[in-house]
Design brief:
This protein is of the alpha/beta class. The protein contains nine helices and nine strands. The strands form three sheets. It has a four-stranded antiparallel β-sheet. The protein has a three-stranded parallel β-sheet with strand order 4-3-5, with helices on both faces.
């Protein structure tokens, strides 16, 4: 975004003000003026230090209105489970040959699922899949025998979240075209999931700051309490 466009997009947004979630969504949507349907992103500042194991925040949330994006899903499975994955709509299914392809740099998927018996094989891909946030993990339902349900969830709006070094959780909560009500429902579901994932070691205020933005737009600070009200 050019400097002039940034200045124009920021007009009408008070940088220090905390907006009720409905007002924040409206401001974000009004400024989503790109030629494509911009993604609406949420960022949560949490009162945790992820360097400590008992303060790690991780999970998955099924957004009630989906993400507006079609994910390509890969499944590491053999035999009947591979057939189930294909029938459920997985885009890429395989075992050793898929591991070889990924090791060779072919990663044409956005979500990765594996049956438990495949994990010793998939574990070799940690250095490739880990940095991309694609490594299957039982905590977020991507290491499972129920591959059909996992594929359906991934295709239907399941969003993984994980706290970053600075104590920030970020995620997509839909598209600007969704409208205010659907975005509000998705935002409430996302925040609710992160709040429920509060780790045992978290001290003090857990949910400290919330901000919304679109792909090309400026950030808008949100009053956290207004989201809690929205989800009740």
């Amino acid at each position: 975004m050019s400097g002039k466009r940034i200045v124009k997009a920021r007009e009408g947004i008070e940088r220090t003000r905390l907006y009720p979630v409905g007002d924040a969504i409206k401001l974000v949507r009004e400024r989503a003026s790109a030629k494509f349907d911009e993604t609406v992103e949420i960022a949560l500042n949490l009162g945790v230090d992820p360097k400590h194991a008992d303060q790690m925040v991780r999970g998955v949330v099924n957004l009630p209105n989906g993400t507006g994006r079609t994910l390509r899903v890969a499944v590491f499975a053999r035999g009947a489970k591979a057939d189930e994955a294909k029938a459920a709509g997985a885009d890429v299914v395989g075992a050793e040959e898929l591991v070889t392809a990924v090791q060779g740099g072919t990663i044409d998927f956005d979500r990765c699922i594996a049956t438990p018996d495949m994990m010793p094989l998939v574990g070799r891909l940690g250095k490739v899949l880990g940095p991309r946030g694609l490594m299957p993990n039982p905590k977020v339902g991507t290491v499972t025998m129920d591959v059909a349900a996992a594929v359906a969830a991934s295709k239907g709006g399941a969003v993984e979240f994980r706290v970053e070094k600075a104590g920030i959780v970020q995620g997509s909560v839909g598209k600007a075209s969704f409208g205010e009500e659907k975005l509000a429902e998705n935002i409430a579901a996302f925040v609710d999931a992160v709040v429920k994932a509060k780790p045992a070691g978290a001290k003090g205020t857990y949910l400290q700051r919330v901000a919304l933005s679109s792909t090309m737009g400026p950030g808008v600070k949100v009053e956290p309490g207004s989201i809690v009200i929205a989800q009740n």
